[in-house]
Write a structure and sequence with these properties.
The protein is mostly beta strands and about 675 residues long. Helix content is about 0%, strand content about 45%. It has one helix and 49 strands.
Length: about 675
């Protein structure tokens, strides 16, 4: 009827006032309060200004806005009022159906009331009479700081409301250029036509600490008549049909803001990897894609379309037949043995590597011990089972054990986590490095070298390819030692004899350490070497005169912990380096107390022996007597002869077994075990 209607915030009264003019604004009705509200936000003084605030510092008020239905439809002339109120602000709407004479009870237009909603603007679609309200909303931030723009829609004259998110980014309104971050702008806006809402708002998503003035104005196109996106759109692998994928979704029966939609009015548009696949009737909710490549991942897009609008796309992905690789088995344990087989307990996977697809074509188990693989067949029914299988390496030593599985198509899983295990005879073994022993190289480039050795063909070196590097923290685990069971002289001790050459800077050190508490330690230091210990090692020229004979007593464990673990550990400084560390001709055996006390023990080589053995004496003085006893203590017939400081024993008449060699020089008797092997 040409009336002009005006609303404003009367902040001192916490009220909204209203006036009307019927003569183009020349005269107005007396202002009157049409709604009172709870105080907005928190009143505070920031930068000398007292205002209502949100987010601690940002000035804001209830900001009422008004729109009128001029559609000449059934609600023609109705007026709709929007504002924000409360300590944690909410957005309210009230309507008048009698040209402003009376107003309905206020209603909240959003479904969330936990955090702030404010800075609203109301608009009406002149083509339909639908009403929309846009506003800033913090529901998506548990800290109630960041805001996004939301839109609420009513299609029944503000009786009911449905809200949807319109903004795609978070904004911190405190990031504004004004003193104290107090003023982020008062003006949002909104237009609405042909079912599309056009909100506009101030946005700080691009603001940085270096440029707080980078505040922007954003908008969005909110199509309230678009069909809703299909919910629970899934792509499912079919394990026993590996060239097919099943697609499914919930039926769509509403538009984007909940308005009813007849399925006969819509179609589903499917794409595979971005390429059109199929258009389906609106009553269809499943589809099977066929002719796919096994073990390939496919991504599908589903859109709902009507004659004029389309929904937001929904995405779903799946592997045809599941991911190519089977799932990773779990290596539960790996236990070595004196005869070398390593017993491995493995938990087999029951899914492919995607963690979803059942593993229906399990074929074999692959056990790896460092560089040695061993395969065994599996049945399909073994999927998910715990099994025990052996792997037998070709030599004693330390091995990094892992497990993997393969399917019937030859696809192998990634390897499992690893376990380190020693397997093989842990008794006394002499080491001359004819072949590189399988030590456990925890850190560093340890290995044999033929460029410098005490006895051919090789020695073991910390840095076999050249001078060692700075800041190294290297460790190698040597073979464990388990004393041989059998007759034992009470005065015997476990000794190691070796030759070392340590061309190591005095600020760097090589340590020999031992543990009887397990391979993890703790370890005690038996000896250490660098050039400060021997002047010859300051000269890195290689020569036989650089080798030093080292004899050390090893700690022995108690019953149940009879294994002695040895390791070499190296550390270097950041600035000065030298050539490196070399070790050769390692011998381990039992030595009697008298010899230990003189620090000149006798030693036997080789042990185990076959036809002869050599007894190294502390001096070349003639021995007075030598004999050999079996495990019963009976002397055995054996011939001997002495050559300098070496006593040679003829063992050809002895059976396999353990014996004790005894040597008497003057009043001193030294004894040492020896194994005879046929």
């Amino acid at each position: 009827d040409g009336s002009v209607h005006l609303v404003w915030n009367s902040g001192t009264e916490s009220a909204i006032r209203y006036a009307r003019s019927t003569d183009g604004g020349t005269t107005w009705t007396a202002p009157r309060i049409i709604h009172r509200y709870n105080p907005f936000g928190v009143k505070s003084v920031v930068a000398g200004q007292s205002n209502s605030r949100v987010k601690g510092v940002v000035r804001a008020e209830c900001y009422p806005t008004l729109t009128i239905d001029n559609t000449r439809g059934p609600r023609n002339g109705w007026m709709y009022l929007s504002w924000a109120a409360d300590n944690y602000p909410n957005v309210y709407v009230s309507r008048s159906t009698d040209n402003g004479q009376s107003w309905s009870e206020a209603r909240i237009v959003h479904s969330d009331t936990t955090n702030d909603q404010f800075w609203s603007w109301i608009a009406l679609d002149p083509t339909s009479g639908d009403v929309a309200v846009m506003y800033a909303d913090s529901r998506d931030d548990s800290a109630n700081i960041l805001v996004r723009t939301y839109v609420s829609l009513s299609t029944d004259g503000a009786e009911t409301w449905v809200d949807r998110r319109a903004g795609d980014g978070n904004s911190d309104l405190r990031n504004n250029p004004f003193s104290g971050g107090t003023f982020a702008g008062d003006y949002s806006g909104c237009d609405f036509r042909n079912g599309i809402v056009y909100p506009s708002w101030v946005d700080m998503r691009n603001t940085t600490s270096a440029n707080r003035a980078d505040n922007d104005v954003y908008t969005a196109v909110v199509n309230t008549r678009a069909p809703a996106a299909a919910q629970r759109f899934t792509a499912s692998t079919i394990p026993d049909r590996p060239t097919q994928i099943d697609l499914a979704w919930d039926p769509v029966t509403v538009r984007a803001f909940g308005q009813p939609l007849d399925p006969s009015q819509l179609r589903y548009l499917l794409k595979r990897n971005g390429v059109f696949l199929r258009e389906l009737e609106g009553t269809v909710t499943t589809f099977t894609d066929t002719g796919l490549v096994k073990y390939r991942r496919y991504t599908y897009t589903l859109m709902v379309t009507t004659r004029s609008d389309s929904s937001a796309p929904q995405l779903a992905s799946a592997w045809a037949g599941g991911s190519r690789e089977p799932g990773i088995p779990k290596l539960i344990s790996a236990v070595g043995s004196s005869s070398r087989p390593i017993s491995c307990t493995v938990g087999l996977p029951n899914r492919r590597l995607d963690g979803i697809t059942p593993l229906v074509n399990l074929s074999k188990l692959v056990l790896t011990a460092t560089d040695f693989d061993q395969q065994s067949a599996l049945a399909v029914d073994d999927s998910g089972a715990v099994i025990t299988r052996d792997i037998t390496p070709d030599a004693r030593g330390w091995y990094r054990v892992q497990a993997s599985v393969a399917d019937a198509d030859g696809n192998e899983s990634p390897k499992s986590d690893s376990l380190w295990v020693f397997t093989g005879d842990a008794g006394f073994r002499d080491e001359d490095f004819t072949r590189e022993p399988r030590y456990r190289k925890i850190q560093g480039a340890w290995g044999t070298t033929t460029s410098f050795f005490r006895s051919a063909p090789a020695a073991y070196a910390h840095s076999p390819s050249g001078p060692y590097q700075p800041n190294r923290r290297d460790t190698v685990q040597l073979m464990p030692i388990v004393p041989v069971r059998g007759p034992r002289i009470p005065e015997e001790g476990l000794f190691v004899t070796m030759y070392v050459a340590a061309f190591i800077d005095p600020t760097d050190t090589m340590f020999l350490e031992a543990s009887t508490e397990g391979v993890a330690g703790p370890y005690t230091t038996l000896d250490w070497w660098n050039a400060s210990k021997d002047a010859r090692w300051s000269d890195t020229t290689k020569g036989d005169d650089a080798w030093r004979d080292v004899r050390l007593q090893l700690p022995e464990g108690s019953e149940g912990r009879d294994t002695t673990h040895l390791r070499l550990r190296f550390r270097s400084n950041a600035s000065r380096q030298s050539d490196g560390f070399y070790i050769d001709d390692i011998q381990i055996g039992l030595v009697s107390v008298p010899e230990r006390e003189s620090r000149q023990p006798i030693s036997v080589f080789p042990s185990p022996a076959s036809s002869h053995c050599n007894v190294t004496l502390p001096t070349d003085l003639p021995v007075d007597d030598a004999w050999l006893t079996d495990i019963t203590g009976m002397r055995c017939a054996t011939s001997w002869y002495q050559r300098g400081s070496t006593l040679i024993a003829n063992l050809q008449a002895l059976a396999s077994g353990r014996y004790v060699i005894s040597v008497r020089t003057g009043s001193t008797i030294s004894s040492l075990p020896v194994m005879v092997v046929r």
